[in-house]
Amino acid sequence: MPKAQETVLEIDLNALKHNFKYLKSKLQNGTKFLAVVKAFAYGNDAEEIAKYLQDLEVDYLAVAYANEGVALRKAGITTPILVLHTLAVNCDIIIENCLEPNLYNAKILNEFIAVATEKQQKDYPVHIKFNTGLNRLGFWENDVDYVVDKLKETSTVKVKSIFSHLAASEDLNEKAFTLGQIENFKAIAENFSQQIGYQPWMHTCNTSGILNYPEAHFDMVRSGIGLYGFGNSEKESAHLKPIASLKTVISQIHNIEKGESVGYNRAFKSEALFTKTATLPIGHADGISRVYGNGKGFVTIKGQRAPIIGNTCMDMIMVNITDIDCKEGDEVIVFDEKTTSAETLAESAGTISYELITSISQRVKRIIKSP
Predict the structure, then answer these.
(1) In which residues is substrate bound (predicted)?
(2) Inter-residue contact 7 to 249 (CB < 8 Å)
């Protein structure tokens, strides 16, 4: 790729393919693969990612909210799409766009059945979530009888899958808790299937579940962060390739004398006789939040780390380049696969890769590197 001349996010579809194939290699033949493309495909480009995964014949896609699924349908995606966080107000557009809802409590179950009935649906595919310990969304174990009774009262919907979500699959110190979740889910699924009279698909593994709990792959697994190159451990991340590189450019260089300040609130004051700074066209409106300011975060210029100084601005950051031989117009690496990973940069500010990569603003230009 040519050197960056502006702030860009380069997305490598070859890396995506590598990650998909690696994660698929962990599955038994016949186990389905659901790719999570919520939040603009974890801050990348949902339409391009979904199109490529569709070409790779992924079995399912998942989004958080209905409007994300609608955008994919408008982009020509035909792969089944699960809406993980169904809201009552969106039941109509879910059906209108052939999306498949997660029904996780009595309100949503009854609302969706009512809308599906009004629209004269027959066996519309739905997914039922059970809470086994994450305590975010989901019916409880003792709700099985209620859910089954409601479903038996109608022919408008039919359960495609039942699922749950592991709370700490990446933390082997919580293995006992995770195994308890898995056993609880198996018991719920068996009870549900016996009562409903057919066998919906079962799925509970996220990326770390895929890697750490093969016994819980069941009929389908779900991967989000792993597809984008992060395995939640050094061991597994070594097998994956981050698909995105965030790059920018030096807009201006300043020579700062002792006692002079840089940025809002004079957050940086030079204590050295001479400090050289570079201003970069990227800020908290682009996804580099204020937590990276004042020496916590850094970028890479000419192979050397340049710490962020002062407060992060909305559209700019300033970095210390006193010991770096560089000039205006030179490329700057914020994160990439080889220099500094998003995971490493996030850790410098006490956060996680998920938060950093999903924060990259859509005003940042995307460049797709095709296979």
Answers:
(1) 136, 314
(2) yes
- Token pair, residue 91, equals 């039941």
Beta strands in 6-77 (DSSP E): 8-12, 32-36, 60-63
Q: Which sequence positions are flagged as catalytic?
A: 38, 264
Q: Return d(Cα 337, Cα 132) in angstroms, integer.
A: 35
Give the SS3 label for residue 135. coil
Other beta carbons less than 10 A from residue 195's beta carbon = 14
Annotated binding residue 73: no
What pTM did the predictor assign?
0.95
Q: How far is CA 262 from the centre of its chain?
A: 34
Determine the Cα–Cα distance for residues 34 and 111; give it in Å rounded to an integer.
26
Instruction: For residue range 313-344, list pLDDT tens digits in order.
Output: 999 999 999 999 999 999 999 999 999 999 99
For residues 226-237, average pLDDT: 88
| Calpha distance 356→371 (Å, rounded) | 26
| Token code pair at residue 257 | 């004398």
262/136 Cα distance (integer angstroms): 43
Beta bridge partners of 275: 256
pLDDT, tens digit (0-9, with 9 covering 90-100), for 90-136: 999 999 999 999 999 999 999 999 999 999 999 999 999 999 999 99
- Identify the residue whose tokens are 């407060």: 311
Q: Rounded to the nearest 5°, which phi and psi values hold at 2?
A: -65, 160
